[in-house]
Amino acid sequence: MDLYEYQASERFRAAGMRTNQGVVAETPEAARAAAEQIGGPVIVKAQVHTGGRGKAGGVKLAASPAEARDRAGAILGMEIKGLRVRKVLVAPAEDIVSEAYAGVLVDREAQCAVMMVSAEGGVDIEEVAARDPGAIHKVRVDPRYGLLAHQARFLAGRLYSDKALARQGAKAIAQLYDAFVESGASMAEINPLVVNGAGEVVALDAKMSIDDNELFRLPEIEAMRDAGAEEPASRQARAAGLSFVKLSGAVGCCVNGAGLAMATMDLVKYYGGEPANFLDIGGSSSPDKVVAALEIITTDPDVKAILFNIFGGITRCDDVAKGIVEATSRVGLEVPLVIRLTGTNEALAKDILAEAGFQFASSMDDVVEKAVNLASA
Ligand code: GDP
Ligand code: MN
Fold first, then answer.
1. Which of these, 4, 11, 41, lies nearest to 26 by C-alpha position?
2. Which end of the chain has a smaller Cβ tally under 10 Å, C or N?
3. Residue-level pLDDT at 164
4. Mean pLDDT value across the chain
């Protein structure tokens, strides 16, 4: 789950970090009032789940409350990378002396968190990594000990030669790591981490992705979820306990188990098709889950054929077959459905499907090739 900047910066402040705390506004008038309350020049920032807002025109300085209202009027409703802006953050504008980058993420290859900094902040860090990888400094964090003081000092030393600044930088870096751990994050980033006119190190941006598997123990972060910004299909899937990822192809896939889902997507590509989604109905699937899955897949107008690929282990093929029959009678399918069921209670499933007029195969190749052909027909 991604947090908005204003939420991530709240997490940073909870760890003691200095940020330019602002006020969230949903209307131009509220932005004006916020600017008046803050006093002095402000920055008006689009709150969307993506970076690159500055380049897209979603971050603007305003010298007065009236200007803040006008800036907010232009930013609210704007679309940034396909995301509609429904909130802005109005924050005190800082004088920027220098901009740096600090981030931490779970590095699967290193099998631990990796903390990174670069003195080239305020720009796209992926761009820096491609152009000048030496400008990014990294340390691996041993989860048994956390970020050690000397590691934070080492990183801060790559950002600031001035001792007082380096001390502040080390503190901010340690606080970033604390916020990352305490929020169950998979990524946390400050870009830019600035030195302001008063010689203070301040986080002017905040980005954080939370590991969904951590949310059960962090109700205050779960409460930050903005259900309105989620794709309806993702919301439905989460409510039904299905793991779902929307993709851009035409073959809707309904599979049990992440491994089989990936193998199925590989085979769809092998036969020249593109999967429309990744949908794992999980083990021990009840007919209800199958109904929910089909409802989710059929709301995607890009889906031209639906492929069921079920291996019955704990999952019983007859449960899935019942779900398919029930769902198709309820949803009214407009696209062809191809089914492969194999394993536990396969014979029962065959009878249920045959009675309802469905065909099915037991070879994965056959069924995938057929679905790809139907989707491209
Ligand atoms: P992003 O483009 O989505 O990463 O949004 P940021 O929050 O990083 O803002 C983009 C840029 O706006 C930053 O890199 C800064 O250069 C600038 N910016 C952000 N806050 C301030 C501020 O308080 N004062 C000034 N002068 N510039 C700011
Ligand atoms: Mn930024």
1. 4
2. C
3. 97
4. 94
Residue 358 Cα distances to 5, 260, 350, 355, angstroms: 50, 22, 9, 8
- What residues have their beta carbon closer than 5 A to ion ligand 2? 191, 205
Which domains are delineated in the chain? 1-20+95-230 (3.30.470.20), 22-93 (3.30.1490.20), 231-376 (3.40.50.261)
Q: Is 101 a catalytic residue?
A: yes
Residues of the chain under the 70 pLDDT cut:
284-285
For a pocket test of ligand 1, which of 205, 207, 208 has the largest count of ligand atoms closer than 8 A to its C-beta? 205
Q: How far is CA 2 from CA 82, 87, 217, 230, in A?
A: 16, 15, 17, 10
Atom of ligand 1 nearest to the CA of 50: 3
Model-level pTM? Answer: 0.81
Q: What is the pLDDT of residue 37?
A: 97
Q: How far is the CA of 146 from the centre of ligand 2 (A)?
A: 26
- Which tokens in the block code for residue 183? 């929020």
